[in-house]
Amino acid sequence: MTSYPNPPDEEIKALLQRIKHIAVVGLSPKPDRPSYFVARALLDWGYAVTPVRPATDEVLGRKAWPDLQAVPEPIDLVDIFLNPSRVDAVVDTCIALGLPALWLQEGVVNETAAQRAREAGIMVVMDRCIYKEHRRLLGSQD
């Protein structure tokens, strides 16, 4: 369990309602992986999803990019499926690119990186599943 203060439900719900383009860092091309399941649901709910994963050409029929800097479209939210030790570098990139929001999936806990992102003006949700939160707050059905 994390002591990081996630935004209140109202702010998370508003975030989920306003975003359009989600870059999923660590999106696996394997259908049995949680990142694949979550990204497929996000696509089904109408979000534009961009896979960010080096050495992968495509996931879910979408072109994959090696890093966030390479993504050509504006990004509203970065959703991270990585080992917590790799989050610092992603936060550095998000700060450098001026990205507005960052979501660290369940089990992805790096309080120092999350705090640094928040201090840079990035909205951060940590150690929560975007799929579960979307269903809970917006009533999304599969």
Notable features of this structure?
142 residues; alpha/beta; Rossmann fold; 5-stranded parallel sheet; two-stranded antiparallel sheet; 7 strands; 35% helix; 18% strand; globular
Gist?
The protein is an alpha/beta fold. The protein is 35% helix and 18% strand.
Overview of the structural elements:
- It is a single chain.
- The protein has helices at 9-18, 34-44, 87-97, 111-119, 130-138, and strands spanning 21-25, 48-52, 58-59, 62-63, 77-80, 101-104, 123-126.
- The protein has one domain (9-137): Rossmann fold.
- Helix 2 (34-44) links the parallel strand 1 and strand 2.
- Helix content is 35%, strand content 18%.
- The protein is built from five helices and seven strands, in the order H-E-H-E-E-E-E-H-E-H-E-H.
- It has a five-stranded parallel sheet with strand order 2-1-5-6-7, sandwiched between helices.
- The protein has 142 residues and is α/β, with parallel strands linked by helices.
Outline the secondary-structure elements.
Layout: H1 9-18, E1 21-25, H2 34-44, E2 48-52, E3 58-59, E4 62-63, E5 77-80, H3 87-97, E6 101-104, H4 111-119, E7 123-126, H5 130-138
Parallel strand pairs: 1-2, 1-5, 5-6, 6-7
Antiparallel strand pairs: 3-4
Helix pairs in contact: 1-5, 3-4
